Amino acid sequence: MARTEMTLTAQDLADRLGGVLDHCPPDRCISEVKPLEEAGAASVSFLSNPRYAAKAKESPAGLILVDGAAELGDRPVLRVKHPYWAFAQAIGWLHPETPTEWSETNLNPSALVGPDCHIAPSATVGARTVLGRGCRLHPGVHVGDDCVLGEDCELFPGVVVYRRSQLGNRVAVHANSVVGSDGYGYVMVEGRHTKIAQVGWVELGDDVEIGACVCIDRGVLGPTRIGEGTKVDNQVQIGHNVQVGKHCLLVSQCGISGSTKLGDYVTLAGKAGVVGHIEIGSRSVVGGNSVVAKSLPEGSFVTGFPARPHREWTEAQAALNRLPRLMKQLRKG
Length: 333
Prior knowledge:
about 325 residues; UDP N-Acetylglucosamine Acyltransferase, domain 1; nine-stranded parallel β-sheet; eleven-stranded mixed β-sheet
């Protein structure tokens, strides 16, 4: 589904959310939802964790959703009972879905297809999508509305590219992978997990290769990015708003939770897991089956659960292996 944009006044939002405006003119026009650090005069953002109060005070957002206890000086705020839930509702109102434009043929009339492209009869291309020179779409591929593919991209059978995704030059996506599906975002409201609209997109840099059965979620608001030259193995999960640097290696069955940032030349070995909202420095290596639970500086080499410096982990494992023999000695003594 493509998305359109609409505009509401600050008072419109206050009425819909049952909140009270403070330091904000009621006729201020709000047309988008943005994070605090990216917001502008026409943006609404939110503050639900006091830890980010300083960032909220510096934000140029035209309106900030807060609870009754927040103190942000003269910043324009809308006081509501549940800022995060209010934020989730505002996304849906200001970035509503519009029906996909289907065509009787597999190629929407408004799509632009460059020379030397090969599109299988069962592949579909959505409205306003642009395919660069030499792209190859195998049987069963679906490319949604408003996508851009660079030159010489190849999408293998069963690949799905959701709307607004952007692929650089020479990108390969192998069979049955999904680029741009909804991020895993919910908020608890009155005992129910309520979906947060995911209105961002995915960007894949030049020479990125995506293996088979990979899922890359689009961002909640902005992009999920995979940097130039990065190679993603089969069955990898990349959460919403993840930022992966250049020339990284993400090996089979690893998973990266939302809003985590990887620097350049990072390697995640097989089945490695990374929690959300942390940073892994450039040229770091995470060993197989490891779980990274906190940010890592550049050049780290970590293993284990939770992940720690490799030498420390191997010493701990060696000590653990000696434990049965030591217990026997204690019982004899």
